[in-house]
Design goal:
The structure holds 2 protein chains of 2 kinds. Chain A is mostly helical. Chain A contains 8 helices and 2 strands, in the order ααββαααααα. In chain A, helix 2 (about 45-70) runs antiparallel to helix 3. Chain A is elongated, with a radius of gyration of 20 Å. Classes of the chains: A mainly alpha, B alpha+beta. Chains A and B meet through helix 1, helix 2, helix 5, helix 6 and helix 7 of A and helix 1 and helix 4 of B.
Chain lengths: ~230, ~90
């Protein structure tokens, strides 16, 4: 199995910080979804909350895989009278493999759950079929990296269309920012599909991800603002 | 589950009716606005009073229901939850 070091050296570690910021936003949304579930006892809020919780957890594993892959150490060799030091970046293969697999599995499951909840899909055979393909794609994508992102784009694309129509229906700033944030997350994953071709593509993809989750947080803040505060603003 | 949701909405409608009337409302007006039977409405009133969302007061020797600060906060929180639910297309 090939392990790609996609990030430029200056960006190593920054990407993990972006994952941590993204997971914080995902956890905040998951917490609020769960709060609504506790009050309303409607299952859709529970599943919505689980979806965002899985996104958050998946970013923990992605950050772990990035930190593991960038493990640096200094090797010193004595050749005759000379002491030669060199920095080595070596992937810790098993940590990277397991954390990447869990990241992909959780991320695909998260968006699958969000698609099922937002599109109100309750048909059991459809859910079983989607679950099967999610697991299949996770493991096959370890050998065909693009497959993961293409599948993710397919799922986020469904959400994006849903949120776009939702915005057209509501015409509120909150629904607009939710739609824009999902558009940015979609673009982020589209860019990341091609990250093995150039390290800068990886940086751009991560940048879009940061903006996407930032916009999602802003949409949440708009939702949480009091009407009184809105009138004062 | 649907019943529970309906309950939350009914509670919101009752409290919001009181707020829209300036914080106090006559029982007959509330009955008209709530679209509930008298018996059902009194069950909700009892529950809302118990939770401290509304209180009974006298105005011009007539009984009125008044919205408390806690009830006002509940309306705000419910509106936020509704906005959240709508914005995320749920």
């Amino acid at each position: 199995m090939a392990i790609f070091i996609n990030s430029p050296e200056w960006f190593q570690g920054i990407d993990s910080i972006i994952e941590l910021l993204s997971l914080c936003v995902a956890f905040v949304i998951a917490w609020y979804g769960y709060k609504i579930y506790k009050l309303s006892l409607q299952k859709k809020y529970k599943y919505f909350s689980i979806g965002f919780l899985l996104i958050g957890i998946s970013y923990i594993f992605e950050a772990l895989s990035e930190l593991a892959i960038y493990n640096k150490y200094v090797v010193q060799n004595i050749i005759g009278p000379f002491l030669i030091s060199r920095t080595v970046i070596e992937p810790i293969t098993w940590v990277h493999t397991y954390s990447t697999t869990i990241f992909r599995l959780f991320m695909l499951f998260a968006f699958m759950i969000l698609v099922l909840v937002t599109l109100d899909i309750k048909n059991k055979p459809t859910i079983i079929l989607l679950t099967y393909f999610t697991i299949l794609v996770t493991f096959v994508s370890m050998y065909a990296h693009m497959l993961f992102y293409i599948t993710l784009l397919f799922l986020i694309g469904h959400l994006l269309v849903h949120y776009y129509h939702n915005y057209l229906k509501l015409k509120t700033s909150q629904s607009m920012f939710v739609a824009i944030s999902f558009l940015t997350i979609f673009v982020s994953n589209f860019v990341l599909t091609f990250m093995m071709y150039d390290p800068n593509i990886y940086v751009a993809g991560e940048g879009f991800q940061l903006i996407g989750f930032g916009l999602l947080l802003y949409a949440f803040i708009l939702v949480k603002r009091n009407d009184k505060q809105k009138k004062q603003a | 589950m649907t019943n529970r949701r309906s309950r939350l909405e009914i509670v919101f409608d009752l409290l919001n009716s009181i707020r829209e009337k300036g914080g106090t409302i006559k029982p007959t007006h509330l009955l008209y606005k709530s679209n509930l039977s008298h018996k059902k409405m009194m069950e909700y009133i009892a529950e809302l009073s118990e939770k401290g969302f509304i209180t009974e007061k006298e105005r011009d020797d007539k009984k009125v229901f008044a919205l408390t600060d806690k009830g006002d906060e509940y309306i705000n929180e419910f509106q936020k939850m509704k906005r959240f639910s709508e914005s995320f297309g749920l």
